[in-house]
Amino acid sequence: MNRLWLGIGSILALAAIGAYFWLRQAPPQLPAPAPVAQPPAVAPAEPAIKHPLEAPTGVTKLPPLDQADEFVKRRITELLGAKAVRTFLQMENFVRRVVATVDNLARPLAPPSTWPIHATPGRFTVETGSDGSVIGAKNAARYAPFVALVESIDTKRAVALYQELYPLLQQVYEGLGYPGKYFNDRLVAVIDLLLAAPEPADAPGVELPEIRGPNKPARPWILYRYSDPALERLSSGQKILLRVGRENEKRLKAKLAEFRKLIAREKASR
Q1: Pair 193, 106: CB distance under 8 Å
Q2: Residue-level pLDDT at 25
Q3: Rounded distance, CA 200 to CA 245, Å?
Q4: Which of 49, 76, 227, 239 is placed for a possible disulfide with 205 were both Cys, Cβ 3.0 to 4.6 Å?
Q5: What is the rounded CA–CA span in Å between residue 172 and residue 152?
Q6: What are the residue ranges spanned by the domains of the chain?
Q7: Which residues partner with 134 through β-bridges?
Q8: Mean pLDDT by 10 residues, the chain (270 residues)
Q9: 164 φ, ψ to 5°?
Q10: Which of helix, strand or coil describes residue 213?
């Protein structure tokens, strides 16, 4: 019996010694290779120009930008008439004003000092509504002459003039800090933003911010803001449309839609 246990013990000892040396010499187990990360799907690149503008039918030699005021004034007077130009438009640096204003209409602020049109005569008025001050109904009458002028413009002739002056507009736009960007694309995007402006059934509520200190503004009515935070967050162009009154807003949008239809050709895919 002792011999039996001795034999078994010898076998176990030899097995243990063999296992020890095998474990010491066995190569270490390498971790499983990590899965190769697949590169994220790349969205198709935006086209450099979304809405290419047709070239004008007649080739016009444009003056240099810094000498273009008289040329531009002459062309616009042919379209609108001398009285309308005197009454409504600010012709000095007109091209620069148009580009800056178009760009700013999609932003929170569009300073009137850069507008290509004169400020509307009269002052902004309010009325007392059920929940406070609202935009006064008389304000719409202040904007009526300008809206009537816009409606009277021959849209096709206006687009033809836009195409003629486009190289100047593009030059100014790139000079504003948009090298390689296309001004007509920006114009179409801004028009789309204006067309999306809300059309409240009732006059929007407005309020004056609290004015502290002894110095009071000479024209406090220019500080009115919309009581509804959602309206106050709109772009400057959308807020202007709200201010002119619902019917005037609809009439201006109709003209904008006509103009957009003629300048917003989609670039053909290849």
Answers
A1: yes
A2: 41
A3: 9
A4: 227
A5: 28
A6: 65-208+221-263
A7: 127, 205
A8: 38 37 40 54 67 82 96 97 97 98 96 93 88 91 96 97 97 96 98 97 89 67 87 96 96 98 72
A9: -65, -40
A10: coil
pLDDT of residue 33: 52
Q: Can you list the pairs that 265-270 forms with residues at least 24 positions away whose Cβ atoms lie under 8 Å?
A: 265/51, 265/52, 265/53, 265/54, 266/50, 266/51, 267/47, 267/49, 267/50, 267/51, 267/52
Q: Are 194 and 241 in contact (CB under 8 A)?
A: yes
Q: State the pLDDT at residue 212.
A: 73
User: What span, in angstroms and rounded, lies between the C-alpha atoms of 238 and 230?
Assistant: 12
The pLDDT, as a whole number, for residue 9 is 39
Q: How many residues does the chain have?
A: 270
CA gap 154, 73 in Å, rounded: 17
Cβ partners under 8 Å of residue 117, min gap 6? 88, 89, 90, 146
Which segments within the chain are labelled E, that is strand?
126-129, 132-135, 206-207, 225-226
> Per the structure block, which two tokens stand in for 76?
């616009």
**Residue 4 structure tokens:** 């039996």
Q: Which amino acid is at 202?
A: D
Q: Are 135 and 126 in contact (CB under 8 A)?
A: yes
pLDDT, the chain, mean: 84
What is this structure's pTM?
Answer: 0.79
Tell me the residue type at 148: A
Q: Residue 210: what pLDDT?
A: 77
* Cβ atoms of residues 55 and 163 within 8 Å: yes
Distance CA 139, CA 17 (A): 102
Tokens, residue 53: 């503008």
Residue 117: what are its φ and ψ, rounded to 5°?
A: -120, 155
pLDDT of residue 98: 98
> What are the structure tokens assigned to 106, written together?
């999609």
